[in-house]
Amino acid sequence: MKFLADMGISMATVQALRAAGYESSHLHEENLQRLADEEILEKARREERIVLTCDLDFGDLLAASGAGLPSVILFRLSNYTPEYLNPRLFQVLAECEPVLNEGAIVIVQDSRYRVRRLPIIR
User: Fold this and answer.
1) Is 110 within the bounds of a domain?
2) What is the pTM of this model?
3) Cystine design at 24: which of 17, 37, 113, 115 (Cβ 3.0–4.6 Å)?
4) What share of the chain is helix, strand, coil (3-state, %, to 5)?
């Protein structure tokens, strides 16, 4: 799995993913901090990356587009520090790898996570 971290995600989370052997990049590293959400999704799709974000717009954009990829991990936590977020992220990765590879939005909360397979059909 490869990851693309949105601006709300700490660089320490990207570094933790790298230390665990995952190919990961942050928009800030590529000087793309002003990239529109639609362009972030297209970049992730093109590069076969999973988007890490705290921005609800990504789920809405994927639902509206009917796209099957890229997968998005959306954090809705009470604490966004890497010390709190990273263990939740690694738990989700361990439990959701197959569905993330196929296309999904995983909404990560403090005590649970929810999976919506892509494409979202209304």
Assistant:
1) yes
2) 0.96
3) 17
4) 40, 25, 35
Q: Could you list the residue range(s) of the whole structural domain that residue 47 is in?
A: 2-117
Asked whether residue 32 is assigned to any structural domain, the reply reads: yes
Q: Which of 60, 67, 12 is nearest to 37 (CA)?
A: 60
Q: Is the residue at 122 inside a domain?
A: no
Please tell me the predicted confidence (pLDDT) of residue 122.
66
Establish whether the linkage from the previous residue to 119 is cis, with ω within 30° of 0. yes
What is the C-alpha separation between 92 and 106, in angstroms, rounded? 8
The arithmetic mean of pLDDT across residues 19-28, rounded, is 98
Supply 114's token pair: 């929810």
Query: Total structural domains in the chain?
Result: 1
Cα–Cα distance, 3 to 112 (Å, whole number): 21
- Residue 100, pLDDT > 70, answer yes
